[in-house]
Amino acid sequence: MDKNTWFGFLLIAAIIVGFSLINRPSKEEMAQRQHINDSIALARQLEIEAQQLSAQIDAAIAAEQQANTVNEEALEQQIQSLYGALAPAAQGEDIPVMMENDVIRLWVNTKGGRIARAELKEYKAYGDSVNNLCLFRGDESSLAFTLVTNNNRVISTANLYFEPIQPNAQNLIMRLKTDRNDAYMDFVYTLHEGDYMFDFAIQPHNMQMVLAQNVNSMEMVWSQRIPQQERGRKFEERYAQLQYLLAGGEVEKLSEQKHDTKKESARVRWIGYKDQFFSTVMIANEDFSSTEMESTPMNKNSRYIKEYTTHSSVALDITGAKPTTFRYYMGPNQYNQLKAYDKDQEAEDKLHLKTLVPLGWKIVAWINMILVIPMFDLFTGWGLHIGLVILLMTLVIKLIILPFVFASYRSSAKMRVLKPQIDEINAKYPADKMQERQQATMALYQKAGVSPMSGCLPMLFQFPVLMAMFWFFPTAIELRGQSFLWADDLSAYDAILTWSHPIPLFGDHLSLFCLLMTVANFGYTFVTMQQQATDPNMKIMKYMMYLMPVMFLFIFNDYAAGLSYYYLLSLGFTILQTMIFRWSLDDQKLLAEMEANAKKRGNSPKKSGFMARLEKMQQEQQRMAREQAKQNAKRYK
To answer: E strand or H helix at 495, and its extent?
Structure first.
């Protein structure tokens, strides 16, 4: 290689080195390039790790899917083992299906095929002018039937899911499907326009291929908690009660005051879960059998009044040739409406649902049915305000019992005009000669033609009418929500004062109508006591008469304002009648009349049956007293 060649290589090397030195990056540029190289390396590393993680996730998902497949297969096998042919109904979604007519709205849940909510369109919740009254909602009510499968599995319909079939406003079929297309069971609900009573039927279809062949009945469990619907809990508790009708026509009741249970071996027509103004009644058209019922009062702080539970048995034809049919009544305890269900029915077919409205003892109930309720319906039918209706009822009743009241007052007046002569007898015979005093007093009454019982008997005839009104007003649903003057609800108490800590035997409020009734009662007692001849030794009775109004204040403070309003009007009319009677009867003329009648009867007046019995009792007492005295004398000797 010659000299020029070497020179060329050196020149090239110098150029390359010089170019490299000239274009060498600074320290900052070298640091930035290093950072970029490091970032590229990190990104490549993260990408590798992401690919590895993705592969791990894919593997985990595949393993989970494989495990779920295994679990689902195990679950299906377990469901098939537990439910047998009913396995298709073991899983599902609980969806409420609504149906309604013009008076009631129901929600039926797909789980269990049961009614889960019931609203009454014509009634509002207490203190709420917007929302309808709800008899129960959610888990407040439950109904379940027990099915026995052909593989000897015992299954409750409460745990099965039904499918709604072509639902509409007033008809609904809830279908319980099986693993056979031609075998299923329908729960059929049918509403009727304008009626609180509706039909419920259990219709099996070829269920002999699913259920045990020897099955001819189902066990039923029905429970319901009764929420407080009215203002006064204490009063509502008194009327909330479980009632039922035996196949023979006798209506029986469980205690409304304490926990009570009852087992009935006889067949039962219907079972009613009753509140003060509303009831849920289940009627078995083929009767219930082997029935056990339980009523449990709830805690005072609970929003519920009672809890009712029924265990019973109902017939079941698994072939479907004869469905198991029921009727439900979910509505008001309105006497005429409940009575109408027995219209044109044979005696053995009557439901006697009207007994859900308590009208009192037999004679009192008859007065309510024959007089009070028809009169109330007549006046309300005229479109009058409820306050005026009660006023007219009071006036009519006072006119009906007017003869009895006048007879009672006249008897009291006779006793009053004899007071001077009775005072002479009391002065003549001191307290240690009580028998002689009584004999002389009875002789005076006999001569004057006066019977001490003549004033009591007319009052006794008035008592059933008084008690009829006592039973009618607290149970008349027509008063519910009706306002009058300061009372916003005549079916509940009208509190003008309330306090936080209840007073024993009185409560946490003061009712104004009750207070006014008490004042009127004081006035009536004062007027009555002024016209009566009172034995000086019977002063304690006089004080007892003034104590009675105070007792009424304690008794009626929780009662319906409509009842206190009626008693206030009744007492006002009674005071007015007494004043008119007193003005129309002259004591001197009455005394002269009595003396004239005594002269006509002569010295041996005819004794009344009561006077004869009273005289005989006095003679017997005197004889026994003489014998006792003789025995005491012998003993002392």
So the answer is: strand 495-503
Whats the size of the chain, residue-wise?
637
Of 358, 386, 420, which residue sits at a domain end? 358
pTM of the model: 0.74
Q: Is there a domain that residue 406 lies in? A: yes
Phi, psi of 503 (to 5 degrees): -85, 130
Which residues 6+ apart lie within 8 Å of 380 measured at CB?
386, 389, 478
- Please choose, from the candidates 197, 185, 48, 175, the residue with its C-alpha nearest in 3D space to the C-alpha of residue 118: 197
Q: How many other C-beta atoms can be found within 10 angstroms of the C-beta atom of residue 409?
A: 21
On whether residue 405 sits in a domain, the answer given is yes
Angle at 186 between CA 184 and CA 189, to 5 degrees: 175
Examine the fold and report which residue of 339, 358, 377 is the final residue of a domain before the chain moves on.
358
Looking up tokens 């609980």 gives 94
Q: Give the pair of three-digit tokens for residue 412.
A: 């009291």
Are 316 and 385 part of one and the same domain?
no
User: According to the model, what pLDDT value does residue 419 have?
Assistant: 67
How far apart are the C-alpha atoms of 81 and 163, rounded to whole Å?
22
Residue 212 — left, alpha, or beta (φ > 0 → left; ψ -120 to 50 → alpha)? beta
Within 10 Å of residue 402's Cβ, how many Cβ atoms? 12
Determine the distance from the C-alpha atom of residue 546 to the mean position of all C-alpha atoms in its chain, rounded to a whole number: 36
Tokens of 411: 């008897």
Question: Any bridge partners for residue 282, and if so which?
Answer: 271, 328
Q: pLDDT band at residue 502, thresholds of 50, 70 and 90?
A: confident
CATH assignment at residue 166: 2.70.98.90
pLDDT band for position 241 (cuts 50, 70, 90)? very high
* C-alpha 7 chain-centroid distance: 123
Q: What is the pLDDT of residues 208-220, one digit of tens each?
A: 888 888 888 899 9
Contact 331, 279 (CB under 8 A): yes
